[in-house]
Give the backbone structure.
Amino acid sequence: MKKWTSVLLILALVAAMFSGCASNGTAETPAAGTDEPAAAEPVTIRYMTFSAAPDHLADLEAMIAAFEKENPDIKVEYEAVGWDDYFTKLQTQVANKTEADTFELNYENFVTYASKNALYDMESLMNNDADFDPSVFNETALNAFRLNGKQYGLVESFSNVVMFYNKDLFDAAGVDYPDPSWTWEDELVAAQKLTNKDAGVWGTYSPIQFWEFYKTIEQNGGTIFNEDKTEVLIDSRENVETLTWMIDKIEKYNVTPSDAQMSGQSDGDLFKAGKIAMLRTGIWMFGAFADAPFDWDIALEPGNTQKAHHFFSNGVAISKNTKNAEAAWKWVKFFTSSQEAAEVRVASSWELPALTDETLLEGYLSQTPPASRNVVFEALDSLVVPPVIENWNELTDAVGQELEQAKLGQKTPQEALTDAKAVLEDLIQ
Amino acid sequence: MSNEKRNNAIKKGLMYAVLILGAIAMILPFVWMVSTSLKSSSVTFVMPPKWIPENPSLDSYKQVFETVPMGRFFLNSVFVSVVSTFFQVLVCAMAGYAFARIEFKGRNVLFMVYLATLMVPQQVTLTPLFVLMNLLGWANTYKALILPGIFSAFGTFLMRQFFLGIPKSIEEAAFLDGAGYVTIFFRIIVHLAKPVFATLFIFAFMASWNNFLWPLIIIGDVDHMTLPLGLSMLKGRWTTDWNVLMAGTLVSILPMLFVYIFTQKYIIKGMTHTGLK
Amino acid sequence: MVGFKKWDKAKTLAVFLLPSLIGMTVFVILPILASLGLSFTKWDLIGDIEWVGLSNYVKVLKDKNIHAALWHTLQFITGYLPTVMIISLGLAMLLNQKLRGVVFFRALYFIPVITSWVAVSMIWKWLLNPEFGIINYLLSLVGIQGPGWLFDADWAMIGIILTSVWKDIGFVTVIYLAGLQEIPDHLYEAAQIDGVNAWQKFRHITWPMLSSTTFFVVTISLINSFQVFDQVWVMTEGGPAGATSVMIEQVYRNAFGYYKMGYASAISWVLFICIFVFTFLQNRFQNKWGYSDE
């Protein structure tokens, strides 16, 4: 009966595993903060992150090590989740009140979580902390994580989008490099000279999707909503102009490839392969482009009636349900604003700390390529924050779909934006 | 006679041609994955794709194991999948047999209920199941990964259909000899059902091995994570190192390939059931 | 059954059925009932659960996105189901022959099944590439200009169907193979002696003997294809411009994107009703609960 003995063996093994795991299971849950202050037991703070995976886990661990050295009574356990799945996981945990004590949120999702009351109000923690000086943070960035007058998160990093350009291609075509005085018109003229059908080179590229759209319309003086988001202005004359311009670059002037022409290749890859002369993309691509086989630099984006640049930001918040608010605060403060953490961050290009410390930034500014890193900070003068509302994801999906239909020629820009307006009006009710 | 031989040869030739063409079509992505995983630079998806990497290297494989604790994830996945699949085959076989051969009141209705559970998507049962697990105190445990995987209407359905297809004569003869259901099941049926056991084993193993959403939600620490979670950690927010991702994916596929080849033996007609009694 | 008491039968039933029944109830049926309950509520996962009665269902029936998603799902099923079944059955019969290297071929055909959707979608995105892909290249050789495939709102769904058929052939073939292996040799031998030709063998032996297997294949494939999601999500995310949006994609978006767990549950229960009705009809049509007589 060999079969039976093997079956029994497996069952025994499994039983052993289960009993072992029963104790494991309970030990895994975060240490309850019911320890008396004088206890020798260290408090454990959980931290969930998306930006650390996959390239910066070592950096995060270094920061945690430094923090734990300074705070021997606090242990930090981190959980890194890929960006695509981060919010699925976070929501389910929040639904069950088992989320981490501290977790990362990008600006857009921050607004959702804050307005749904999932975050800890930091006011009292800030006021009770004599060592805390809010001025170490960039004011705009820090204020982004306020809602209804309360501080719900500390800003961890920021990034933005600028215009990258391939100097070698410009030289070969005899075109002057982009400068701050450029407008859309200048860009078009340059793009037409740079586009080379035979060599498969395109003059310029920016995607037609929602995030690009809400920034580009500002370059023409348009917006999605009015100031206090009570009125929908997405179908204004300026915005229709802007959308038409974005589509014309592909269809009319042929200086930008269509999606079919790009055929699944990413804009970053095409730029790196020398097939796109001017590319609007994020400063997070510095690392990816570092070993490009040509000379490149960055410049401010040309506007039409004014300049406008993206502003993206990640912050860290404390869960409303945490049992260790004090310890959590110490970790969050250290992670976002301490000298040690910031230095690790800058050294490994893990996005930019939103701090005002000049010497820190010097380290960043002196790295090349690109040579004109000061552009990153100049772009902050004309920044555009995402027009986040509570039903943000529905908004981005709905407007995104309208833009796609316009892009595919299924609707005119006017029709697409009029339809978008109807959807948005429903959403802000 | 030579005409018939020629016809046979042509028929065989055609069959082979079809099989080979089909096989090429099936293998293409696998080849692409291997090729990508051997590329040293992360120059990603360039058109037209290069089938043969310029400087083939095993760097991406090294990176896979260094970036995230792949070894641990691998072991976790093996443990969870093997245990849950083994029990699933056992439990579903017994239940399938009951549905196929044991008459009882409400049998059809109960079976319909089983079938109906297949019609509700995982996406909406995840959250309630998650709440349940937390109530039981099983969050972040192996139990939570293994147990839900054992109970599958799919497996029960598959087994039932198979058992229905077995001629009753064999069991009737055994009954006449005085054997009970249990004896018949474990002595006779199990041998006859080797092909379908092997089949369910493969499918169940695959489902368990590739399961992503559930482990994502229920597992909190690195020690319990399974392979698909590990792979997702290789994807960055803005960029992906395709060569590393493909290397990781290949590593995760190998066990399934192994399981498949191993179970092939049982699917092939072995001891025949035609000549029984 | 000769000499079998009712008590013995009950005991046997308990042994055979109880493990499955208990497990199913706790881990499968309970969460399902919970999700049914959720469909009558409004819940953003972060705040409290709020009872809203039937209003989710009313919204679902009026929601244009859902209408479109259901329509696309039906398109998928119509293209996918017959194709994968016919090809797989043919393939299974081929692989059931005494050809050399059959085991080798079987392994090869199964490789797509175990290959991840990430890899599958990347390679098919290339194969279907309008500019550089092999498919359009082959079409051009016979003078046809290939369409924009995944970039073309009219062709994207066809591209997804092709990919799905390709990936699942191995799966369905394996099931058919197991079913074919069940058919006793002596039936074919007897037919051979009677001088029956290949088509008649298929029609009178193979096809009827495969009826429980076919029932299984059709039912499972129907249930699964109503819930198609993974490949759509990875290949097009429902685009371009929503042309390949399907029901589960809507469920996923609402549950995890829009924080509308209650609404998402309602959508999936509407889908459930569709699947149930179709399965019921299909079962009636086949008129078989799998009781095969020889």
In short: Chain A touches chain B through 45 residues (CB under 8 Å).
